[in-house]
Amino acid sequence: MFSSLVFFRDRRLLSIFVFGIASGFPWVMIGSVLTAWLKDESLSRSAIGLFGAIFAVYSINFLWAPILDRVKPLLLGQRRGWIAQMQVIMILSCVWMSTLDAQTALYQIALCGLIIAISSATQDIAIDAFRIDTIGQHENDTMSAASSLATAGWWTGYGGLGAIPFLVADLPGWEWQQIYLLLAAIMSLCLLSVFWAKEPVVDRASLLAQATQRYQALLNHRSSLFSKIASWLLVSLVEPFREFFQRSGARLALQILLFIFLFKIGEAFLGRMSIVFYKEIGFSNSDIGTYSKLLNWWVTIIFSVIGGMVNIHYGIFRGLLIAGSAMAASNLMFAWMAEIGPHKGWFMATIILDGFTAAWSTVAMVAFISLLCNRAFSATQYALMASLSVLSRTLLASSSGVLVDKLGGNWTLFFILTALMVIPSLFILYRLRHQIRRIEGDRPGNRQV
């Protein structure tokens, strides 16, 4: 299995890792930091959980993903140009957030968080497309390595850099508003990395030529200008979805989408309430920064690489199966921590297993979805499938605080329920095992569509 490490020496993976950092860091801005700020301002668990509804934009970003496939910014190219623009918006939004007071400007905070979420979700479209466009159509093993480093980068942004605001929050004289200025400065460093990344070269026009001609033929009775505009819109908005369902078959496509939707729902319910749980049982901001962020960061990087090696050696199906089973086990460890209280040793053990499951499952899922994408529509098709995974992690999981309240604050039962949520996706995964193995050997790439 260690022979798989050769695929990690590819220089293209460095940019993929750095962009992964930029992808994970916005979740600190509107996730853990915002949750901790609102908790310190004495908002209820239900209110904090509902704030997570702003993450729903990640689940619908496929609606504007075709724009990123067809519209090229004036500077830095198709992928890097969109990444840079979105990062500038997030930097300015953090500066705005630093001027707001949670007691008197809650609606403005929600609006600012929504702007960050939309910008981040759009950035993710471009970053995922950058990764798929950068790796060649037959480089399946390199794609698994790229997926592992993208995951390691995401957790570096979310966990490694995400520990900084929590460690700073306990220092004298620091308020959460000032911390948002710090977050803006860190994102500015991510912006610098866009300038030395190499823009992937994809002749998208030739890939789309056949589809464009087909739609123009259907519209040939119209005026030339109308035909060109209508065919451009149809190729941008309809063709990515038609191509995916035609290639996979409607039944298999729907099963794949349902699996993607269900796979991480239990992890999402747990993750949305984890900071609230840590604070309620007695852990300090420094404890959370050290264990939940810094420790989890290193654990995730290590297991992201190991997960990529496993996927290369044993296949994505086994990677998904192992990760899904381990997710349920790690959620049960949280249930036991709810019983024994703020025990740092158990906290460390729980974080290690949770980091393993989060990393491994994400690497396998990212590689799986990437293999399903045609490079002609890499932004749109990846966004469509990834958004389904995010939908369960955001829109549905925003009710996690309500669920804890309905259970009377019984954290043990809550974590047991999140473990059971994994089972339906594993059942679907087992039914799809032959199709997944076939997909691994037949990645759609630079084909005419």
Automatic annotation (TrEMBL):
Keywords: Membrane, Transmembrane, Transmembrane helix, Transport
Keyword Transmembrane helix: yes
Main location per the UniProt record: membrane
Residues spanning the membrane: 12-34, 46-68, 80-99, 105-127, 148-167, 179-197, 252-275, 295-312, 319-340, 346-372, 384-404, 410-430
Membrane topology: Multi-pass membrane protein
Subcellular locations according to the entry: Membrane
One Pfam family hit: Acatn
Alphabetical list of PANTHER family matching this protein: MAJOR FACILITATOR SUPERFAMILY DOMAIN-CONTAINING PROTEIN 3, SOLUTE CARRIER FAMILY 33 ACETYL-COA TRANSPORTER -RELATED
Protein name: MFS transporter
